[in-house]
Design goal:
This protein has about 220 residues and is an alpha/beta fold. The chain has a single domain, classed as 4-Layer Sandwich (Metallo-beta-lactamase, Chain A). Helix content is about 20%, strand content about 30%. The protein is built from six helices and 14 strands. A hairpin with a 2-residue loop joins strand 11 and strand 12. Helix 1 runs parallel beside helix 3. It is globular.
């Protein structure tokens, strides 16, 4: 139990693991079907060889790469993983331009210019099943125009990227960022998702919707 009285999540046939990669500690999320050993990988931002070797050593079958948005610290290893496992990359349809432009996705800024094209463009409200795991796409613009979250109803789990953090929210001063949109997006998550929802953000530690409704600086406007 945590201080809000919410139980730690226990799942049957499903497991979540996290790897922290790169110079600004990006969370790479492994979503694992423990029965089939099929997995989804969210935001492989760096250290591609390390991620590839771990997947191979565990005997996992990578079914898809889910991008919450297109900033360099979330995409730099995506191409390497796609080539290694012949799996599709999914991204929101509004993120096409940012993914393709090293200046917009900030990879040119850090000396590792990267351009990426998704195999599947997804939309708000779309329900997708990959690797035996079903999730919903929630478009949450503000950090970038095509930022999105992935909600897994069966596990009461939200992968929030850089939209919603533990006690905070994503910056809006980079290309396609927008102050009013991030406010609307965070409010949408806090208003519509169950309080018990476990949230794994793109950086730092996990949180719960219940906690964010109490302590997030945007929550008082919900």
């Amino acid at each position: 139990m945590n201080k809000l009285g919410l139980k730690q999540k226990e799942y049957e046939g499903f497991q979540l693991q996290r790897a922290i990669v790169g110079p600004i500690a990006t969370n790479v999320i492994f979503l694992i079907n423990t029965e089939s050993k099929e997995i989804l990988l969210v935001d492989p931002g760096d250290e591609g060889e390390r991620l590839i070797q771990y997947i191979k050593n565990q005997g996992y079958s990578l079914q898809g790469i889910l991008l919450t948005h297109g900033h360099e610290d979330h995409i730099l290893a995506a191409e390497e993983l796609r080539e290694a496992f012949c799996c599709p990359i999914l991204a929101h349809e509004a993120e096409v331009a940012l993914l393709a432009d090293p200046r917009m996705n900030c990879s040119a800024m850090v000396g590792t210019p990267c351009s990426l094209a998704a195999d599947r463009l997804i939309k708000d409200g779309e329900e997708i099943t990959l690797g035996g795991m079903t999730f919903q796409v929630i478009h949450t613009p503000g950090h970038t125009a095509g930022s999105c979250c992935y909600y897994f109803p069966a596990y009461e789990l939200l992968i929030s990227g850089d939209t919603l953090f533990h006690g905070s929210y994503g910056r809006t001063d980079l290309p396609t960022g927008n102050d009013s949109q991030i406010l609307t997006s965070v409010q949408k998550l806090l208003r519509e998702l169950p309080e018990e929802t476990l949230v794994w953000p793109g950086h730092m530690d996990r949180t719960f919707i219940a906690f964010e409704k109490l302590y997030n600086p945007l929550a008082e406007r919900v």
